[in-house]
Amino acid sequence: MASAAVLWFGDFMSAVPLRNNKAAVSAVRTVTVLGATGSIGDSTMDLLRAARDRYQVEALTANTNVQGLAKLAREFGARFAAVADPDRLSDLKDALAGTRTACGAGESAIIEAAARPANWVMAAVSGAAGLKPALAAVDRGASVALANKECLVCAGDFFMQRAAKAGACILPADSEHNALFQALGSGIEKSWFASSSPPQADRSGHGPAPISSKRRWRRR
Asked: What pLDDT, in 10s, does the model give residues 71-93?
């Protein structure tokens, strides 16, 4: 599959190639999973579990699930583990006692996890909180599997410009925008997309738009 990213902002959506990702793949690739204890993180860890000889876990993060995070860090020998809740640092240290896994807590620790030298990063932190860590991975030119739509909803143009500047490879991992990614790269000449989400503020910002008013997306 070609290295490309889905631009998802404003009134338009498009697939834009970022870089030719033909660099030789080392025998063992390093991986960081941001949001390792969530549903997408859980699926990612299952994939890593099935190919242990091909991947080394660099860093893992979680929001508040210290025990789940520590269990994964022990299982995969993660070099770094971070919990978003700054009040859970001592709990995480206790849970990782006797291991070689360094640990941290709070937003800065999550960003540090993303900035560590992993070849590939699964960005699965929910909501706008996932933007800064994803940018930290992008800025060092990592391959980022983006399972966080908010990075593009909140800062699509900015995010993609940073990715292009750093030579990062962005691949849509969440179900909806992965499906769109595949559709946009399939040779389809024209397509329409409709949103079925709850009412959102109208363009003037002064109230909800009617439910029947569906925003149109255009392929270009």
From this structure: 999 999 999 999 999 999 999 99
